[in-house]
Description:
Shape: flat
Largest sheet: 6 strands, antiparallel
Radius of gyration: 23 Å
Number of helices: 9
Strand content: 15-25%
Oligomer: single chain
Number of strands: 11
Distance between the termini: 45 Å
Amino acid sequence: MLRENDLTPYQKAAIATRFASEVKYNFAGYDKFAQNYDSICRAELPNLVNTQSDEEFSEKLQLFANMLKDGHTSIGFSADVTYAPISHKRIGDKIFVTGVYSDEYAQKGVRRGTELVAIDDLPVIEYGNRYVVPYIPSSTPQWSNTYPFNSINLTKGNRGVPVKLTFKNETGKTFDITDNRQSTWGIVNPDMSIQFDSLPGNIGLLRIPSFQSNNFNVQAFGDLFEQKIVPTDGLIIDIRDNTGGNSQVGQIIMMLLATDTIPQASWKTPKYEAAYASWG
């Protein structure tokens, strides 16, 4: 855990300013800021340097990084954090368990479909918005409204620090589990392979859980396309739980599925010319 105050104010300042320097030179959207980033850094630096513990510093530094509003820019610390042995998903304004990875939880009545209604006596959406959403980098409101409430994000915390989870079963009965964040997880090995099912009306359902290269077999997908997808009269592509990955995998899939040309993304990168700085 980071509750000690091992970092000196000078070290905290060095870490914060190093991050700010990396942003200034390498952040892709630096020219899109509505405010002057140097001014933001000067305003935030005292709050970062004067934190009372390394844990508080790490939290405030994450909030500082998330001011960039970029889902791929974040700061991580090697704290000893863990999660309750469940996975969950947000549907509307409710959170439901999607997986249970502990015999203890199963014996207490937690199963797939059980509703998680509160954490530490706060309604679960309120808890997520207060304690989870601000610390997860995000580029869009829809990501902030979805990702922090999915997977295992809601129960993250320092190992050994208890968290109270309130569940509601299918009969409407609520019950609590206090997890000391020491629970032993069962084996979690999700199937990330592409799956295909046939629905009534000769409609195909293609589930793509990942675009990671190591989860994608080009030859196998080509065979699937020729043998099962081509003969269908319609196709549903399900990427709701896709964890992302390599854009080239997506391009290969689209090359087979698309019936028209596929627009490609353009990109550019800045070039630093030191002399220009001295010239103003």
